[in-house]
Amino acid sequence: MPAFTALFQFLAFDIAWASAVAGGAGGWPWIGAIPALGVLALHLFVSRAVIAAELGAVLAIALFGILLEAGFMGAGLVNFAGHPVLGVLPPVWVWALWLGFASLPNGSLVWLQGRPVLQAGLGLVFGPLAYWTGAKMGAAAMPTAGAFLVIALAWALAFPVIMAMAARLSPRQPTRTPVDLDHGAGGRPQGK
């Protein structure tokens, strides 16, 4: 994925995340979900050469995430604003978030493929940070500080699983990071 497209997708997902969370908190879950679905549509357009495999990966990752959220809800770790689907699954705005997020492993986050320790570290930090931010925005309630720790540990395990699912179901060639581009494969600066 070209660097500009990857950056655009990542920023678009950040906007979609904020929109979905605000929609969930404000009682407008369907409106808030639209940008996340737009991120998914953009990703599938960019991935049109491998759309069948990528759609399968996105749906599998989204299902994994929805079940993870249902587990968090069932354990009393988080309560989302909005109506649960079928009484036990997260509200529709959370589903939209997962569909949008599921486009990132083979999109703007493809450079993380093959780096499970980094994936786990990012999950450990940014997983609970997303819940904390969502709770501050009024889209979720977290009963205890211990819930953040459990969610952090769960995300440290879940994020590498998500990345492995993406790599297995719709393999992509990892792109080089900006550091790799500046220093080359051996870590030494390249001549200009």
TrEMBL record:
<feature type="transmembrane region" description="Helical">
    <location>
        <begin position="58"/>
        <end position="80"/>
    </location>
</feature>
<keyword id="KW-0812">Transmembrane</keyword>
<feature type="transmembrane region" description="Helical">
    <location>
        <begin position="146"/>
        <end position="167"/>
    </location>
</feature>
<dbReference type="InterPro" id="IPR021306">
    <property type="entry name" value="DUF2878"/>
</dbReference>
<dbReference type="Pfam" id="PF11086">
    <property type="entry name" value="DUF2878"/>
</dbReference>
<protein>
    <recommendedName>
        <fullName>DUF2878 domain-containing protein</fullName>
    </recommendedName>
</protein>
<feature type="transmembrane region" description="Helical">
    <location>
        <begin position="117"/>
        <end position="134"/>
    </location>
</feature>
<keyword id="KW-0472">Membrane</keyword>
<feature type="transmembrane region" description="Helical">
    <location>
        <begin position="92"/>
        <end position="112"/>
    </location>
</feature>
<feature type="region of interest" description="Disordered">
    <location>
        <begin position="173"/>
        <end position="192"/>
    </location>
</feature>
<keyword id="KW-1133">Transmembrane helix</keyword>
<feature type="transmembrane region" description="Helical">
    <location>
        <begin position="28"/>
        <end position="46"/>
    </location>
</feature>
